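Lab notebook: predicted structure, single chain.

Context: the supervisor wants predicted structures on file for every construct in the current expression panel, including those that have not yet been purified. This is the next one on the list. No modifications to the sequence; it matches the entry in the shared construct table.
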Amino acid sequence: MDSEIVPTIETSRYLAISSKIDTQDIDWKLAKKHGLTDDEVFILTYFADIEGQTIVYLRDFLHTKAALEPDVIAFLTMWNYEEFFHGKELTRLLEECGHGLERSRISLVRKKAGISERLEAAAANILSRIFYDEFPAVYTSWGAVQEITTLRGYEELEKQTTNPVLKILCERIAKQERRHFAWYFNSARDRLNASKKSRWLTRKLLSNFWTPVGAGVKPREEVIRLMGLLFPGQLADEIGKDIDSKIGTLPGLNGIKLMSHYIERFLPC
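Prediction complete. Output recorded below exactly as produced.
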């Protein structure tokens, strides 16, 4: 029989350093002076749109048993707060550089969400009730994949851009995303360690239904364009293997291919 899951991660250390991204020292006029390339406008719009959808993912997580755990409630509150300000500051950068987004952007993006994304959300809600004890492991494992992918995206954008303000924002956002990934990864590890059934369910759902960050909300061609811009050429293969290798260290996920499989299918060599 599977043992009761008691995560061992120390959420308090995440909360102790939680804050909205600091931009008080940023010279926004400098950002405007350097401007943004068309590709950067596309990337930042995509990022801002998805950061703005965090509240939706939080809603889905709240359907699971894990939502009753004090540490989980505390972390998700901090996570949603920080992600909101990521989107807010990226939106400000776009506006300062002459590429402002609609004020109702979050609702507009949500309305354009594909039918597949809505069906997956409904299916996840049903499965979270059927597999009440096991589904938190799925969500935290899924979250770990998405957070490390997002982290790698910000890291690569920081390397590529010549806009000094965008470099600063990417560096500071990546620092917080690194903590988010650590929490999801450690939480997933504890839950998967504690339950054989959770390991089976998580591997099954990730292998068959995982898609990159924003897929479903964004059309596939935009997802592919984003990945091609952030991870050009051979880098895509390296990033894919790096992400899969890290996720593969989680209990029950050894050898899993998620990002590398997606890259093989959709990105040109």
